[in-house]
Write a structure and sequence with these properties.
By secondary structure, this protein is mainly beta. It has a single domain, classed as Nuclear Transport Factor 2, Chain: A. The protein is built from one helix and four strands; from the N terminus they run αββββ. Strands 1-2-3-4 form a four-stranded antiparallel beta sheet. β1 and β2 form a beta hairpin. The longest helix has 11 residues. The chain is globular.
Length: 79
């Protein structure tokens, strides 16, 4: 996962903050990675994004897609 976050950081020009999920797929792995997109004061108003990242079996990044943008202070609504 560290290799994938490094690769994503190079592509986006921003450091990932966390990996919120990781699951195996038929061709490798899929992860959700949280990235700080816009730092604000106070910190709870900073804008983050969630990216779906696809990796091959060796951990090489194959593709990524931003799936969500949100402020740090936002919580998900229950289903």
């Amino acid at each position: 996962m560290s290799s994938a976050t490094e690769q994503l950081a190079k592509l986006l020009g921003r450091l990932p903050e966390s990996v919120s999920s990781l699951k195996p797929t038929d061709s490798g792995w899929e992860a959700q990675v949280e990235v700080l997109e816009l730092e604000r004061i106070p910190d709870t108003t900073s804008v983050l994004a969630s990216y779906r990242v696809s990796l091959d079996e060796e951990g090489t990044l194959i593709s990524f897609e931003r799936t969500r943008r949100y402020t740090r202070g936002t919580i998900d609504r229950p289903f």
